[in-house]
Write a structure and sequence with these properties.
The chain has a four-stranded mixed beta sheet, sandwiched between helices. Helix 1 links the parallel strand 1 and strand 2. The N terminus is likely disordered. The protein has two domains: 68 residues, Glutaredoxin; 52 residues, no CATH class. By secondary structure, it is α+β, with helices and mostly antiparallel strands. It is built from five helices and four strands; from the N terminus they run E-H-E-H-H-H-E-E-H.
Length: 126
């Protein structure tokens, strides 16, 4: 279930791409709640981002698709590893197999960060 709220003290919306089974993701969500930051929770395994949404997140992160992929996942090894794929093909695969997307990602209207370590999201929510 996603909640859409406005970020505290700003007009900027905050989203967290969240996997409730991941301890780092739960820690990032807890930090948002402890700091009173209103946010939208996107359970990206249940509701994968669209190609456009993921492209926007990559642009905010300043990353290539490969940088956002979990290389230990079976889907990565089967569909990506050892293949010469374009940016668009890699993004489409992450949308199709969202388990490959690194987590958690916290984003605002202008930028995003992967919360590894957790402190990297502080500038996003400031």
């Amino acid at each position: 279930m996603c909640m859409v709220k406005e970020a505290v003290g700003t007009n900027m919306s905050i989203q967290i791409y969240h996997n409730p089974r991941c301890s780092k993701s739960r820690a990032a969500l807890n930090l948002l709640e402890e700091k009173g930051v209103e946010h939208e929770v996107i359970n990206y395994l249940e509701t994968p981002p669209t190609i456009e949404e993921l492209t926007t997140v990559l642009d905010k992160l300043g990353m290539k698709p490969q940088d956002l992929m979990r290389k230990g996942e079976a889907e990565y090894k089967e569909h990506v590893q050892g293949k010469d794929l374009s940016r668009d093909e890699l993004i489409a695969l992450m949308v199709q197999y969202p388990k490959m997307i690194e987590r958690p990602i916290v984003a605002n209207d202008l930028k995003a960060a992967i919360a590894r370590p957790l402190e990297l999201i502080l500038p996003i929510i400031a």
